[in-house]
Write a structure and sequence with these properties.
With 345 residues, the chain is of the alpha/beta class. The chain is built from 14 helices and twelve strands.
């Protein structure tokens, strides 16, 4: 992909600015737990690639990957991705409700092409791993990014005291979590968004009504504007990004009719949540809308209700989608030097 000099210089300036702003605000690396429904949409794969590249740069700590998906190959795929990026010891937890398989899911394509050692039976249940990590964490130190349905979080909220902590789930979250970054819903109003539905009526409503820590939403309307993926046609084929996005382009129900032998651009929902969680970017990339509460219904819908002293906010894009796409692609591909070179000649 060719980018004109003006665009590249603007992206460099934006990334430098958000990096500086983030360093002024956080004073330390974000400590992140990533909760994903990997396999159905390629944005989860792109988001995990971003996190691994951030970890390699020392920009964040990835404490665990929690899996909502019941796909048989989800844990093997996550383990394969962790190993590919040379972070094999990042813990994985999974929802223990049994497994299934789907020909439209790209997890098996990744598992078939890259080394993995862990399966569904080898990893702990998500709530146990959440409680273990949170129980050992310092107060208000953890950022939890969710990019799938919220069943794992509902179960964590409802969990009881155990060997990891004397606190119940709600108390443990309130004590240890700094912020939730939730990719889900549509703002200011939307109907039947997948992450707020997940074929699990009432889960999102329960979670949002019971979280007492700050929650930042990156909604459907934000990520749908930002298209990435075609650039992966020009990368090494022996990478999870290539294998996953290619399989997704061939098989995803809403995109396969456009497939003509090459990876297709796709909406960038989950990557926006990761970008905000690590780099911030408020007033540079997006505005943070406050003064309200995300009220969820039981069918995947939501609306923004004005409310004072709320702990909810959502991101509203203020930068052009084409610049966001270039920025996110650079982070997914670990091409930071392309946008922040040692010297700008």
């Amino acid at each position: 992909m060719k980018i004109n000099i003006y665009k590249m210089k603007k992206i460099r300036t934006l990334l430098l600015l958000i990096l500086v702003l983030n360093s002024l605000i956080t004073f330390s690396q974000p400590k992140i737990i990533f909760d994903t429904d990997i396999g159905g949409d390629a944005d989860d794969l792109g988001a995990i690639a971003m996190l691994h590249n951030y970890v390699s740069r020392g920009d964040c700590e990835l404490l665990a990957v929690m899996c909502w998906s019941d796909d048989k190959y989800a844990v093997p795929a996550i383990d394969a991705i962790n190993r590919f990026y040379l972070h094999p010891n990042i813990p994985i937890g999974t929802r223990k409700d049994g497994t299934s398989t789907s020909v439209t899911n790209y997890n098996q394509a990744i598992a078939n092409n890259f080394e993995y050692k862990l399966t569904y039976d080898d990893v702990p249940e998500t709530v146990d791993l959440y409680r273990k990590i949170l129980g050992a964490a310092t107060d208000t130190s953890i950022t939890i990014i969710t990019v799938g349905p919220l069943k794992n979080i509902e179960r964590l909220l409802q969990s009881k005291a155990d060997k990891h902590s004397k606190l119940n789930g709600s108390e443990l979250i309130s004590k240890k979590v700094k912020e939730f970054v939730i990719m889900g819903g549509k703002f200011p109003k939307g109907d039947d968004e997948w992450n707020f539905n997940g074929n699990m009526p009432g889960v999102t409503k329960y979670v949002l009504n019971n979280l007492k820590v700050p929650v930042v939403f990156s909604g459907f309307e934000l990520g749908v504007q930002i298209k990435t993926g075609e650039i992966f046609n020009d990368i090494d084929e022996e990478t999870p990004l290539y294998k996953g996005f290619m399989y997704f382009s061939q098989h995803a129900p809403w995109i396969k009719d456009q497939y003509k032998g090459k990876i297709l651009d796709n909406s960038t929902f989950d990557q926006t949540a990761v970008l905000y969680a690590v780099n911030g970017g408020v007033d540079v990339l997006w505005e943070k809308i406050t003064g309200g509460f995300c009220e969820a219904d039981n069918k995947g819908g939501n609306k923004w209700v004005k409310r004072e002293n709320s702990n909810h906010s959502y991101l509203k894009l203020i930068e052009k989608p084409e610049f966001m796409a270039i920025l996110i692609e650079a982070i997914m591909l670990n091409r930071f030097d392309d946008i922040i070179p040692p010297e700008d000649n």
